Amino acid sequence: MDKYIITIGRQFGSGGRSIGEKLSKKLGIPFYDKELISLAAKESGIDPEVFKDVDEKAANSLLYSLSMGLYSFGSGFSAMGDLPVNDKLYLLQHKIIKEIAEKENCVIVGRCADYVLRDNPNCVNIFVYASMAFRKEQSVKKHGIDEERAEHIINKTDKSRANYYSFYSGQKWGMAENYDLCIDSSKLSEDKIVDLIADYIKMR
Predict the structure, then answer these.
(1) What CATH homologous superfamily does 5-203 map to?
(2) Which of 10, 61, 65, 131 could form a disulfide with 70 if both were Cys (CB 3.0 to 4.6 A apart)?
(3) CA 200 to CA 204: how far, in whole Å?
């Protein structure tokens, strides 16, 4: 593939973000994760700290707003004033992801990017998961999370991501049919997973 956008969905503690970073370096292409918050803040003029608190968390009013015609993607952002911050961030990131995908090869982590780019033939969708034991170990080692609270935080974060994905896409998070590759990160090293994804892209 000469043109490709790699999206990575990930369970908390599975190493999906780290894999995405290493993959972007291996392929020499841009990497977007928290960077999307900064871009959304710059475009909207909203403090990035406000967006950080609601990143990948669903609100309750966007679908109602869309159904009532209060917002449409083609009309700019003048109608966004009454929406919750969660919805504003999703809409901004939706727009930015599409713009990025038009102009460059890249790796995008989370933010329903696989759904946003579902009609893009150059999109390669990856989901990274792992056993709870592995994710607890990684959460303690890489994120400094207390071992006794690790499983609670993992489950809470995954539930939040699942709700976010379901709310904005209408689909179930982590379902194999939504992805090109689903990879258990406890079975291979991150470097081998990066090589696997890179080889898959070459074969497409």
Answers:
(1) P-loop containing nucleotide triphosphate hydrolases (3.40.50.300)
(2) 65
(3) 6
Domain spans in the chain, listed from the N-terminal domain onward: 5-203
pLDDT tens-digit series, residues 58-75? 655 555 444 444 444 443
Q: In sequence order, what are the residues at sequence separation of 6 or more whose Cβ sits closer than 8 angstroms to the Cβ of residue 125? A: 7, 9, 114, 178, 179, 180, 181
Taking the model in full, what pTM does it have? Answer: 0.84
Quick: pLDDT tens for 93-113: 899 999 999 999 999 999 999
- In sequence order, what are the beta bridge partners of 10? 128
Structure tokens at 40: 């959304």
pLDDT for residue 34: 84
Instruction: Compute φ and ψ for 99, nearest 5 degrees.
Output: -65, -45
